[in-house]
Structure to design on (321 residues):
């Protein structure tokens, strides 16, 4: 690169062999049209297909603006983005999925919003091209997440987002093992905003997010940014203890007044099973927080980089001059 890029585009890649050529054909012209210095960081997240080979070929075609980070295994989308953040050089950073569901041509609109003084730009998909269950599940989880964490993101599933370099530095300084990057950026931002962008069907391949992955992501989001669930179960426990005490008093008085009786045994069983279910759910929730603490205190590397494909820096940037 001849000069420090004004824009870095970070793209995690996992088994996207069938769609990468389409991405290249649309992404580079869209960025060239901006007429600003830019770089693209592809992070190969342990792909098992030919994605790494295709990224290498693309690097050889456009080495002046292309960089490729190769993981030695699969660490997940957010760890791939975090690696991109640690190595990007641009004053502004945009994250983009490799599946072309978010059109690269929308990048100019995110930069226009940043030119208005915003340090973080989220996006809202104009029309959802996902399946019906994912659409409704996403809406439900969005509402729950906003109630619990007080973080306002209209569309948390859209990864097309723009960040100021100051926000990127704050995110990189966090050493959390499990996190949700857009929520982290929102908590650090002083002037966030959201804009509406287009959304298309996947150009090729299948979504890498299963139902379990979506549930896992929202667990990380809720438990990583709020202790409200623990506080809720504390209040619920106190409330149930009070009701249980009142119920015991009621049973004692009924026995003194009515005498021994066999009726109501199955009702007591039902109440017992209900309370045991709440207890087990609360223990599971507590285990979720303890598990996060356990993962954090081990202090293991969040990801391992096998190699980086990039052109050498000019002397004034590498420190040789």
């Amino acid at each position: 690169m001849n000069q420090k890029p004004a824009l870095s585009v970070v793209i995690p890649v996992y088994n996207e062999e069938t769609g990468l050529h389409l991405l290249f054909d649309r992404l580079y012209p869209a960025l060239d049209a901006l007429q600003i210095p830019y770089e693209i960081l592809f992070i190969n997240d342990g792909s098992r297909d030919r994605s790494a080979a295709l990224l290498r070929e693309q690097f050889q075609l456009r080495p002046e603006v292309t960089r490729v980070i190769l993981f030695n295994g699969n660490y997940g989308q957010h760890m791939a983005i975090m690696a991109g953040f640690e190595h990007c050089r641009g004053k502004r950073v945009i994250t983009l999925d490799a599946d072309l569901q978010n059109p690269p041509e929308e990048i100019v609109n995110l930069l226009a919003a940043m030119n208005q003084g915003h340090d973080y730009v989220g996006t809202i998909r104009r029309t959802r091209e996902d399946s019906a269950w994912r659409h409704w599940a996403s809406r439900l989880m969005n509402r729950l997440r906003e109630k619990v964490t007080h973080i306002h993101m209209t569309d948390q599933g859209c990864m097309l987002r723009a960040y100021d370099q100051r926000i990127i530095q704050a995110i990189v300084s966090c050493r959390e093992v499990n996190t949700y990057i857009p929520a982290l950026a929102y908590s650090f931002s002083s002037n966030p905003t959201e804009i509406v962008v287009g959304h298309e069907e996947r150009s090729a391949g299948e979504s890498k997010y299963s139902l379990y992955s979506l549930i896992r992501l929202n667990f990380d989001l809720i438990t990583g940014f709020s202790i409200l669930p623990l506080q809720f179960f504390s209040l619920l426990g106190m409330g149930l203890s009070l009701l249980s005490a009142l119920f015991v008093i009621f049973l004692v008085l009924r026995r003194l007044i009515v005498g021994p009786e066999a009726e109501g045994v199955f009702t007591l069983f039902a109440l017992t099973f209900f309370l045991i279910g709440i207890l087990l759910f609360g223990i599971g929730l507590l285990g979720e927080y303890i598990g996060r603490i356990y993962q954090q205190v081990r202090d293991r590397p969040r990801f391992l980089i096998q190699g980086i494909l990039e052109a050498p820096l000019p002397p004034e940037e590498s420190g040789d001059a």
In short: The chain has a mean pLDDT of 83.
